[in-house]
Every structure is written in structure tokens, then in C-alpha cells.
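Sorry to interrupt, but I need a hand with the structure work. I would like you to pick a protein and set down its sequence and fold. Please put the record directly below this note.
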Amino acid sequence: SSRRCDHCCVPLCSASAKFNGILSFHAFPTHSDLRRQWLVNIRRDHFTITSHTRVCCRHFASDQLIEPTTLDGRRRLIKGAVPTLFEWNEIYFFSADCMFYVDALVFKQYPNATGKIQHQILLIRLFYTAFH
């Protein structure tokens, strides 16, 4: 099956299956209230959802994700799952296989740095904090 639609629609998130096979991408729920809550949470008020629109696993807390039980299985969401982890939060983290803490202060302190450099700065800060 084609993976061309596997990129995250959340603002400031550049996640794409093209460059990362670990991430999972989840379609919007069909239930209207839950779908509306997703839109509110991802801050996309006037947004057209298509069959290809996805939110990546990094925006869901680990207790909202069901890990695959087989090697070829897919990560799924629990019933009623809602994305809550975003770059505009003070701290958010990549869930599941990408437990990677991201401090929004990095983005404020180094606004011109690329995502890769921001993550490197963050890792240095986390390493320093963990051992000092």
C-alpha cells in the first residue's frame, strides 16, 4: 500500500513516514465530538480532513497507544484517544518507540536553528541535567 499520505498534519510537526519507519500515523476519528476535540487540540479550527489526513504517534501519551503484538502488526490508539502532546506545550515528548523529550524553551532560545540542531541542543541539555 502507498504511504504517500503518511505525514503529520499537526502544526510545527514535520513527521513523515518517508524518513521514519518507527512512527505510526493515525486517521481522524469518525465520531463527530471526538473529531472536533482532535481539531481543537491540534489547533486547526478551519481545516478540511480527508481520508489521507493523519496525526502521528508523537502527539499521543503512551497510555493512549496500543503497541503491536506481532512484528508485522500496527500500533493502534485506544478507544477515545485524543492527541495532547505538542511543540507549543511547555514540555512534550515523542511517545512509543520515540521517547524523546523536547523542551519548548529550545525553540524560543534558538528560533533560527533547524529542527536537527534544536534536538541536538536539547539532547546535550538533557544529558547535562541527568548527570549533574
In short: The helical segments are 32-41, 104-109, 115-131. The chain has a mean pLDDT of 76. The CA atoms of residues 22 and 97 lie 7 Å apart. The chain has two domains: 1-98, 102-132.
